[in-house]
Design goal:
Number of domains: 2
Oligomer: single chain
Strand order of the largest sheet: 1-2-10-7-8-9
CATH architecture of the largest domain: 3-Layer(aba) Sandwich
Distance between the termini: 50 Å
Shape: globular
CATH class of the largest domain: Alpha Beta
Structural class: alpha/beta
C-alpha cells in the first residue's frame, strides 16, 4: 500500500485532517510549522537534479502596464508547465523513504496537480489514478494520461472529485494523495527560495490561492530568509471560499462558478493551509474572470508566454491595485501555462 500508515490508524487520520476542513474555528489549532532554511535547501537540491530552477524576469512592457517594477517567477517553464511538480516530487520521495514498499496512489485534481503526481509516480514505477470532475480541461486530461495515469471522471466540481478519490483509495487499498500537505509545501518552497534570492528585494508578492501549497511555499521561503516582503493572496470572485474563510478566520465553503480559473476552483479550503495563511498573508484580493482573462492577454502581448486562467490572476490583482503598487518592486508567480487551445483562442479573440 502506498501510504504513511494503515487507513484506520491515528497517523493516517492526522494525515487526512491536513486536507479536510475543520468544523470549528481553525486559528487556535496547532499545525506543523513551516520548514527551516536548511531543510528547504536540502529538498531543493534534490529536486533541482530532476527539475531545473525556473527563471524570473522583469519584462519592460509589463512594467509599463502595471506602473511598477514587476518580477515574474516563471513556473510555467517546468517539465509539466506548472509549479506543482516540485511538491509532488518531494511528497513521493518522502513517502518512499518512510514506506519503501509502495504500490499505487490516487489523487483528485483539475489538472496540474494530477500531472505532477503522475510525473512523480512514473519515476518510481508506481501506479497512479487521478480523479477529475466532468468537463475538465481536455488538454490537461490528455497530459495526465500521457504521463501514465488512469483517469476517472466523477462529479461536477473538484470537491466531488476529491471525495470520490478518498472513496477509491479505501476501495482499492491505495494511498490517498491529499491536495495539501507539508511535503507538498516544502517541495514548492525551494523554487520560491530561488525567486527571493535571485530577484532584487521585493516589496510585495501577489500569489494566487487554490488549496494552499503555493501560497504556503511563498510564506515558507520568505520566513526562512527573514524577509519583510508583504504577501498578498489572490482569489477568484467566482471561487471565493478562501477569501471568505480568511475574513471569517475559519473554514467557509462556497460554491464555485469560475469559467477560467480552474486551478483555483476549490469550494472548501484546507484548514491547515488557512492557519498558515492567517498567520502570514496580509490580505486577499478577489479578481473577476474578466480580469483574469485580460491578464492572460497582457502576458501574451507583453511577454509571449501562454498563461492559464488561474496563473493570470496574480497579474490581474496587480493591475487592479495599480495605484497602490506604483513605483514599488512587486513579485508574482506565473504558476502554470496549461490552457486548452480553444479556451486560449477565445480569450485572445475577446481582446
Amino acid at each position: 500500500m502506498w501510504g504513511l500508515a494503515a487507513r484506520g490508524s491515528a497517523k493516517w487520520r492526522r494525515t487526512r485532517q491536513i486536507a479536510c476542513a475543520p468544523k470549528a474555528d481553525s486559528h487556535d489549532r496547532l499545525v506543523q510549522p513551516l520548514a527551516k532554511l536548511s531543510d528547504i535547501e536540502a529538498i531543493a537540491n534534490a529536486i533541482d537534479a530532476v527539475v531545473p530552477s525556473t527563471p524570473q524576469f522583469s519584462w519592460p512592457l509589463l512594467n509599463a502596464r502595471t506602473g511598477c517594477e514587476l518580477w515574474v517567477k516563471h513556473e510555467n517553464h517546468t517539465a509539466i508547465g506548472s509549479f506543482k511538480i516540485r511538491g509532488a516530487l518531494n511528497y513521493v520521495t518522502q513517502l518512499a523513504a518512510r514506506e519503501p514498499r509502495l504500490g499505487g496512489g490516487v489523487a483528485a485534481t483539475r489538472g496540474n496537480f494530477g500531472q505532477a503526481v503522475a510525473f512523480a509516480a512514473s519515476r518510481r514505477g508506481l501506479s497512479c489514478t487521478i480523479v477529475v470532475p466532468h468537463g475538465n480541461s481536455v488538454d490537461k486530461n490528455r497530459a495526465m494520461r500521457a504521463l501514465g495515469a488512469e483517469l476517472i471522471e466523477h462529479g461536477e466540481d473538484f470537491q466531488a472529485a476529491l471525495v470520490e478519490s478518498e472513496r477509491m483509495a479505501a476501495a482499492r487499498d491505495l494511498h490517498w494523495v491529499p491536495p495539501f500537505h507539508p511535503d507538498l509545501v516544502n517541495g514548492n518552497a525551494g523554487s520560491m527560495l530561488n525567486f527571493f534570492r535571485n530577484s532584487p528585494r521585493l516589496d510585495r508578492v501577489y500569489i494566487q490561492i487554490g488549496m494552499g501549497s503555493g501560497v504556503c511555499a511563498v510564506l515558507s521561503a520568505r520566513d526562512a530568509l527573514g524577509l519583510p516582503t508583504e504577501i498578498v493572496g489572490v482569489a477568484s470572485e467566482r471561487a471565493p471560499a478562501i477569501a471568505l474563510s480568511f475574513e471569517s478566520r475559519r473554514v467557509v465553503s462556497h460554491a464555485v462558478s469560475t469559467r477560467i480559473a480552474d486551478g483555483m476552483a476549490c469550494s472548501t479550503p484546507s484548514g491547515d493551509a488557512l492557519e498558515h495563511i492567517l498567520r502570514g498573508v496580509q490580505r486577499i484580493v478577489r479578481v473577476s474572470d474578466d480580469e483574469a482573462e485580460a491578464a492572460m492577454r497582457a502576458f501574451f502581448s507583453d511577454t509571449h508566454n501562454v498563461v492559464e486562467g488561474a496563473a493570470g490572476t496574480g497579474l490581474a490583482a496587480v493591475l487592479r491595485e495599480r495605484d497602490a503598487v506604483a513605483g514599488k518592486r512587486i513579485g508574482i508567480v506565473l504558476t502554470g501555462g496549461n490552457v486548452d487551445r480553444d479556451t486560449f483562442a477565445r480569450v485572445l479573440a475577446a481582446g
